[in-house]
Design brief:
Layout (H helix, E strand, L loop, with lengths): L1 H8 L4 H23 L10 H10 L12 H14 L3 E7 L4 E6 L1 H14 L3 E5 L12 E6 L4 H7 L7 E6 L21 E3 L20 E3 L20 E3 L19 E3 L2 H4 L15 E2 L1 E3 L18 E7 L7 H5 L8 E8 L8 H9 L9 E5 L20 E5 L18 E5 L6 E2 L13 E2 L1
Parallel strand pairs: 3-4, 4-5, 5-6, 6-7, 7-8, 8-9, 9-10, 11-12, 12-13, 13-14, 14-15, 15-16
Antiparallel strand pairs: 1-2, 17-18
Helix pairs in contact: 2-5, 3-4
């Protein structure tokens, strides 16, 4: 779609470009809304999830566009919110994000017209599977049992691209039938979130076209080894899978979004994360001492975006290792959290050098440093290159006795100091280039 737009725009006057851009966005909106017709009107979703679904379906063709697919998806989502096609539903306190719904009043014409005119998108109950066309491509299936009979019926839908399984409130589903995925080789999107399942069948390895897998908020304990066969997989959603403590993603080299609470859910990182160079969503990295889990795995993960925590910094031996994380090259990160654990065997001086070597990119907006045992905060924390930083949080950095010149950072609005027991005063050093009256003592 975007390449067609660029082709049409060649030789066109600048005064006409605005109308062409508007047409492009209108076309995107129609496609996104048509895809969204497979969801019930009261279906809740967060922004990232809907964008990832759109991306999985290839809605945004960006062969000649410099922006990332997710950025274009984000612009489209924001436009749908601005025009009230999508409206906020509630704030999810557990995940700290807004949940949205489709606006039934403004969306109704598109929603029902889409279902009436396009026969490859349906929302049905499992008992109705035998009454619909086997040529269906996009299906939301409302399930109560999801038994072998349902599994057998799904095998005939060989052209299916999207399968969203929705649990009825009284559902007793605890497993996915073993052979359900054998014939669904064109499936691109599979959504099983909130199912009460503890495992996936190995037949999921047959879904060679799969781009998007959502098993979030399930009691799943592990992913089958056959998941490594899904070389086109771009998104795995495992948020709220509290029984999951181990993960193997080494072979998923095109993975862009690994969505889970790394620190809260995993005991250690999957080995070989450094090979997943397309990763954009990774909330945290747990530094280990084993090969494949060290900080050097971050070296080439330069597409990481948004918020990122590096935990287990006590497992870095020296500043040379820390430098190999190349945090300065992660230009899309906006929030960086640097966290030590309880063991500080190498002493404060080494920690000073390690933290100095973990300088983030100059575009970060938020910085948190936790449990740092060194004597001195890094020189880069007050560098004028951090022109966009709005918030700095320092937590239990007990050996630091003085704050650097944080008062000179042009955009800094929030400075939080928690249990900084070593600091005795904030004096002229804090605002190096400004006149200050007196000294603030603790």
């Amino acid at each position: 779609m975007d390449s067609d737009f660029q082709q049409k725009s060649k030789g066109i006057r600048d005064s006409d470009l605005e109308s062409l851009i508007r047409m492009l966005y209108e076309e995107r909106l129609k496609i996104c809304m048509l895809y969204s017709s497979i969801f019930p009107p009261d279906y809740e979703f967060d922004k990232d999830t809907m964008i990832q679904l759109w991306v999985a379906e290839g809605i945004f063709g960006l062969e000649q566009i410099s922006a990332s697919i997710e950025e274009v998806g984000g612009d489209t989502f924001d436009l749908m919110v601005a025009t009230k096609l999508i409206v906020p539903s509630r704030f999810d306190m557990g995940y700290g994000q807004i949940q949205y719904k489709f606006n039934k009043n403004r969306f109704r014409d598109y929603y029902y017209a889409g279902r009436a005119s396009v026969d490859d998108r349906l929302i049905v109950k499992e008992s109705e599977l035998g009454n619909i066309s086997k040529e269906i491509k996009y299906l939301s299936l409302i399930c109560k049992n999801f038994d072998d009979q349902t599994s057998e019926a799904l095998k005939d839908f060989t052209g299916l691209r999207t399968l969203v399984l929705l649990c009825e409130p009284s559902s007793s589903i605890t497993h996915v039938p073993r052979n359900v995925f054998l014939n669904l080789k064109h499936l691109v999107t599979l959504d099983l979130h909130q199912f009460n399942i503890s495992e996936l069948p190995s037949s999921i390895g047959n879904l060679v076209s799969l781009h998007y897998l959502d098993v979030s908020e399930t009691p799943i304990k592990h992913l089958p080894e056959s998941i490594g066969s899904l070389r086109r997989l771009e998104t795995i959603k495992l948020k709220g899978c509290l029984e999951l403590h181990h993960l193997n993603t080494t072979k998923l080299i095109f993975l862009r979004h690994l969505d889970l609470d790394i620190v809260g859910q995993l005991n250690q990182m999957p080995t070989g994360m450094g090979s997943l160079r397309s990763l954009r969503t990774l909330k945290a990295f747990l530094i280990g001492t084993e090969d494949g889990c060290r900080v050097q795995e971050l070296l080439y993960l330069n597409e990481l975006s948004g918020s990122f925590c590096i935990s287990g910094l006590e497992n870095i031996s020296n500043s040379v290792e820390a430098q190999e994380a190349k945090l300065q090259d992660k230009q899309y990160l906006r929030k960086v959290e640097l966290r030590w654990g309880g063991c500080h065997s190498d002493g404060p001086k080494v920690e000073d050098e390690i933290l100095e070597s973990l300088q983030p990119n100059s575009s970060i907006e938020e910085l948190e440093i936790l449990f740092f045992n060194g004597f001195r905060l890094p020189s880069w924390i007050s560098d004028s290159s951090l022109h966009d930083i709005v918030s700095i949080t320092l937590y239990k950095c007990k050996n630091c006795s003085r704050l650097p010149s944080l008062g000179t950072l042009p955009s800094l609005k929030y400075l939080e100091l928690h249990q900084m027991t070593g600091i005795t005063a904030i004096d002229h050093v804090f605002c190096r280039n400004y006149k200050v009256k007196g000294v603030m003592h603790f």
